Amino acid sequence: MTTIITNCGEIAHLSIGDITKPISGHEMSDKESLVYAKDNAIVIKNGKIMTIDQNEVMIDEFIPWYTGGNITNDSYNIVDAGGKAIIPGLVDSHTHLVWSGDRYNELSMRQNGLSYHDISNLGGGIMKTVETTRNTEFTNLLSKANDRLDIAISYGTTTLEAKSGYGLSNNTEDILLKVISSLAKNSQCNVFSTWLGAHDFPSNKKRSEYIEELIEIQLPNVYENKLAKWVDVFCEPGWFSLEDTERIVNASHEVGLKSRLHVDEFVDSNGLKLASELGSVSGDHVAFSNDESRNLASKSGTMQTFLPGTPYILGKKIDLPIQKCIDEDWNFSIASDFNPNYSSLSMPFIGSLLTHRLNINPLTSLVASTRNPASTLFESDEMRGSLAIGSPADLNIISSSYIDGWCQTPGINPISKTMIDGEIVNSNKTI
Ligand code: NIG
Ligand code: FE
């Protein structure tokens, strides 16, 4: 079956240079090299992009009888983009997808002056979600996670990383990772799993005891049963120290698990520096990291992943140094950080925070939501995140003819149709 998307508006192909590597600096907004002008068509064969060329030429060559509209026959599946723009499938490289419970009471606590730390010390925060998650059966967790994944797909996400971390015991972390494995097997979305046993300390154990459990019991279970590709640690004063993080990550690296870490979310504790020294693929949050750490991350190939939804929801100023990353040529990505405290799976909204709040170019924000995070998730020979010839056709048709429209409708979904491996997996009404 050949699929042809006719009558395209702008196409953000993002396929310049080595597509397994991120794009940095002012190249991220170089429209001439990253975007095709309108009036092209995309030809897809066996789920992969075969050609992108002028609409009329492609119609003449493949479907000379075609006069417009969506048509499916024995040989062709024709999708009429109606002049709308095409962007790669969005890649959400940081989510806490699997948990149950309800923490919406915490907003008023914050508004009354309590901090994230205070709420946690009062029995809210991560530990509250751990309690409800532990009391939820596998099938219920799976069904919730599945619904959330469908929501993410409806916002154009075609690749998603999901972490455990609300179990905090071998048994429950195992269940959460098996939920993610089941999603990965059964969804068309590309789902990746990260073990975050080191998200917090369970109340029934001493800190040192729990770290021993992580290394001696949970880690062997994760790698022997191939439950995750990465380890993550919440490296932050009050949670896991630099020393704890180093121990857990080194033990994980020894058995072949790579790392992506929560660092410098509330203060600069040199977490990003440690992530770079350890060779982590990504340091996430990085709101307070110092410039020396950022420079080091760039040199060592550790992606800085900003999660602007978190300060947004915590009522803090969103003053992330993203423009500085661009000016300094430091690689960066953005992701949702979906979690019980930040319940949004919309990458277009994250793009809006960058463009509308930090004055970042929409194309730059798109690169940070597609090709750059993909380079931290996929092996080189299976790379996605751009619309390069030969790549799997993971893409979105959006509601605007300009690719810039991908992140300019906060609260309204800009995604019209989503394709994964050349198959339409979702359609939405759009404005
Ligand atoms: O990335 N900071 C650690 N983990 C999550 C929040 C977890 C929670 O509040 O439940 C985050 O922001
Ligand atoms: Fe997180």
Descriptive notes:
The mean pLDDT is 98. This protein has 431 residues and is α/β, with parallel strands linked by helices. Helix 8 (207-224) links the parallel strand 11 and strand 12 (230-235). It is globular. The longest helix has 18 residues, at 207-224. Helix 7 packs parallel to helix 8 (207-224). The protein has 2 domains: 2-88 and 386-427, Urease, subunit C, domain 1, CATH 2.30.40; 90-381, TIM Barrel. Helix content is 35%, strand content 21%. Strands 9-10-11-12-13-14-15-16 form an 8-stranded parallel beta sheet, sandwiched between helices. It has a 5-stranded mixed beta sheet with strand order 5-4-1-7-6. It has helices spanning 31-34, 55-62, 106-111, 116-121, 125-134, 138-154, 170-186, 207-224, 242-254, 271-278, 291-300, 309-313, 322-328, 347-357, 362-367, 371-377; strands at 2-8, 11-12, 35-36, 40-45, 48-54, 71-72, 76-80, 86-88, 90-92, 157-163, 190-198, 230-235, 258-263, 282-285, 303-306, 332-334, 395-398, 415-420, 423-427. The chain is built from 16 helices and 19 strands. It binds N-(iminomethyl)-L-glutamic acid and fe (iii) ion (FE). N-(iminomethyl)-L-glutamic acid (NIG) is lined by residues 96, 125-126, 129, 234, 262, 265, 310, 337, 339-341.
